Amino acid sequence: MYIQTKSEDSVRTSMSILQFLLKNYRPRDFAVRLWDGSTWDPEPGQPARFTMVIRHPAALRNMFLGAGERQFGEAYIYNDFDIEGHFEGALPMAEHLFGLHLGIADRIRLGRQLRRLPPNHVPRAGRQAARLRGAVHSIERDRQAVENQCFQSV
Known about the structure:
By secondary structure, this protein is of the alpha+beta class. It contains 6 helices and 4 strands; from the N terminus they run αβββααβααα.
């Protein structure tokens, strides 16, 4: 008797989520690679302009369960996913995802699938948000932001 592992279930669920979200994206000229090496190739006849790399089983949950564009951006910053290849080529795909208008039934279905993925129990890696003090756009706060960015770049 074959028993499916949690990782295999997460792979299947992740691919199903991506295929649902991108079903109307044409032409799909990019590939997807999951943390276990599973891939979803571009549409036949389309060269892969980039590869969207999903780094761990909780990545899609981090990207899509919550506050929209901000959550997606934070998932990128914290290295939940990456873009290999032509980064600018990924912008139309991101616009497609942000522009989706799902009905209530589709939102419920997507939420259920996202909740099937494991929550992220590890500390978020990658760059951290600057901890700034003072009034927004004050000289002192802006100085802190610039210094923080400069030190992260070194």
